[in-house]
Amino acid sequence: MRRVTIHDVADKAGVSLATVDRVLNGRPGVRKVTIERVQAAVRDLNYEPDAFAAGLAKKRNYRLHFLIPNGPNAFMEDLSREARDFASTLMRERVSVHIEPIDAFDAHRVTGTLAVLDKSVCDGVAVVAPSFPEVRAAIDRLQDRGVHVVTLVSDHPASTRRHFVGIDNVAAGRVAGRLLGRFLPKEPAKIAFIAGSLGLRDHADRYAGCTQVLDNEFPHLELLKVREGRDDNGKNHDIALKLLKEHPDLAGLYNIGAGNRGLIAAIEETRRGAGLTFIGHELTPYTRTALQNGTMDALIAQDPGHEVRSAIRVLKALCDGAPIVEGQERIGIDIFLKDNLPDLA
Amino acid sequence: MRRVTIHDVADKAGVSLATVDRVLNGRPGVRKVTIERVQAAVRDLNYEPDAFAAGLAKKRNYRLHFLIPNGPNAFMEDLSREARDFASTLMRERVSVHIEPIDAFDAHRVTGTLAVLDKSVCDGVAVVAPSFPEVRAAIDRLQDRGVHVVTLVSDHPASTRRHFVGIDNVAAGRVAGRLLGRFLPKEPAKIAFIAGSLGLRDHADRYAGCTQVLDNEFPHLELLKVREGRDDNGKNHDIALKLLKEHPDLAGLYNIGAGNRGLIAAIEETRRGAGLTFIGHELTPYTRTALQNGTMDALIAQDPGHEVRSAIRVLKALCDGAPIVEGQERIGIDIFLKDNLPDLA
DNA sequence: CTAAAAATGAGTAACGCACCTCAGATGCTT
DNA sequence: AAGCATCTGAGGTGCGTTACTCATTTTTAG
């Protein structure tokens, strides 16, 4: 059960090592018939290159940059932490991760950060950024310069980015809609929506998915117009208080974006938890507690750890031209009820 | 930004390469003070061994065996397929996976299969098997022989297995309970349960979790006694027909085990889909369709692909004494509604 | 048919580490 | 201070591949 090496392939094909190497690494200077002969030998012998030897000989190393929004956002902090943690276990595999905090709302600065990157500095970039056209253009230019780019959490479908690591936000919104519809009694009731901004692609997608399901399958529910709170806890707190006052009979609440903390506080202050079905996004210490004590009823989440590891795997695969294991890289929508919260790490 | 190598460590510690090697690989013949000096240098320089070079030099290879129940079970077939698929991409990393079909209900044969395994044949084993004491004992003996063992899907907590790859079935049951409780109107109603066998640990766990939530938080619901269908579609079909006849007002149904196909058929034949909230486990072509057309209301699943890849990563880590990334190996409970079904691969 | 161009063979130096040997140095005991 | 055990240094080899160079053979064009 010895490993099959290029020597065996060379023997089988009746050529020299050098020729096998030329074929395997796509170097020029080999006749078509010879190429085919070598490839046939590879197939026959079921040859697989040895990743250890190849990595060693290639002196390969993977310099990855992660551009992640800063600011007091628990989810983004988790992303950064997971990236750092996973990177440390991957040092010995020659993966180095540099985390660059960015201001997600300042498209100009983000563009500038992308503009200075270059093949001489890094091999792959994962970026979390809002979908401004200039950012898309910067991504495209970066790829032209030979740096692989994946979008993280929030996609830029129009760009040439090689992969998107994140959840399907339309589906996430649909899930929220169905849970609201099914959790509430089958009778007329009001539902309120709070978003960071419908200008953000993921928020808009979630809203669209949610209203689609509610309009079609739960037409007895009245949907109030969306309030935008810029993902800010203070703003959301005020919005919620006003909302609860204006609509004493409010039955459902869907927070499309971040800033759950402000909403939770408002609901608990007014002791409206029992009568209100409240669904939000992302697992944080605050939402966890709210789910446990009944203030929140369901949480739709994405696992930042999974996303970071997926992004790194994908970028690595892109760097050495390896195929991407699709099933492995599909990020699922996590639905948390108080019953299936993961243990705290 | 050159890589730090053992040469650098040797220089820094003022010793030779041989000594560094002795320390790093735990070989004898080094004074305690020297060991400490080398370790200090390692820390100072932040030295990390190069996985490529180490793997190459060690001629390491990972021979893994997967023992997976055969029989007409879509989930187990998925497991096997995923194992094969992932293994093929890992050949170049010197991971070879052998899949051994077993008869999960024949503990004696399973024990026999485990008994002949040995360090000379394989380095790690992942086993899906019911929790009979003899199987547990066989696992322990196998580990004593130096072969790492992880349990897959169904755990043997009492054994010395190094890791369990699978979901928390009690939590899964609780989720089923809460979804039933919240999907149904807040008024008295009957709920039926079908299991493969409460003798199977995972089924018993799910049942316990589900009734715990229903009893405590939804006391208005009446829980009928569990029917056991041995995970057989034919048996389940008959059970369902009888159940629907005996209880024309049945409001909820939870299939704890496999054999959803039989239940789906029975419900669709009797046109009882609309009035019945039906929750089951595992995503298969049948349950997918049932969810889409409304026969089923929710699906609680575990991703066989994730589980296989996790098992392989864990076994690999155990083989070379590397730490396990806990967060990465936690298998989440997937909750599928008709809104978040993954695209077909 | 010949000269130029293209294809191939043969060989070699890395890559970083594991593992081995053997000689020499150092410490410790009497 | 000799004798012994214990440490340590120097050096070599092998792992499978990459990425060269240089010489040689084959093919192609004129």
What this model shows, in words?
Chains A, B: Keywords: DNA-binding, Transcription, Transcription regulation. Chains A, B: InterPro entries: HTH_LacI, Lambda_DNA-bd_dom_sf, Peripla_BP_I, SBP_2_dom. Chains A, B: This is LacI family DNA-binding transcriptional regulator. Chains A, B: It comes from Roseibium litorale. Two copies of one chain form a homodimer. In chain A, the strands form two sheets. In chain A, strands 6, 7, 8, 9, 10, 11 and 12 form a seven-stranded mixed beta sheet that branches. Chain A is elongated and about 85 Å long. Chain A is of the alpha/beta class and 345 residues long. At the A-B interface, helix 4, helix 5, helix 8, helix 13 and helix 14 of A face helix 4, helix 5, helix 8, helix 13 and helix 14 of B. Chain A binds a DNA duplex (30 and 30 nucleotides) through helix 2 and helix 4.
- H-E string of chain A: HHHHEHEHEHEEHEHEEHEHEHEHHE
List segments of chain A where confidence is low: pLDDT < 50 over at least 5 consecutive residues.
none
Mean pLDDT of chain A: 93
Largest sheet of chain A, in brief, is: 7 strands, mixed
Q: State the helicity of chain A in percent bands.
A: 40-55%
Shape of chain A: elongated
Return the structural class of chain A: alpha/beta
Q: Radius of gyration of chain A, rounded?
A: 25 Å
GO molecular function, one term (chains A, B): DNA binding
Keywords (chains A, B): DNA-binding, Transcription, Transcription regulation
Protein name (chains A, B): LacI family DNA-binding transcriptional regulator
Organism (chains A, B): Roseibium litorale
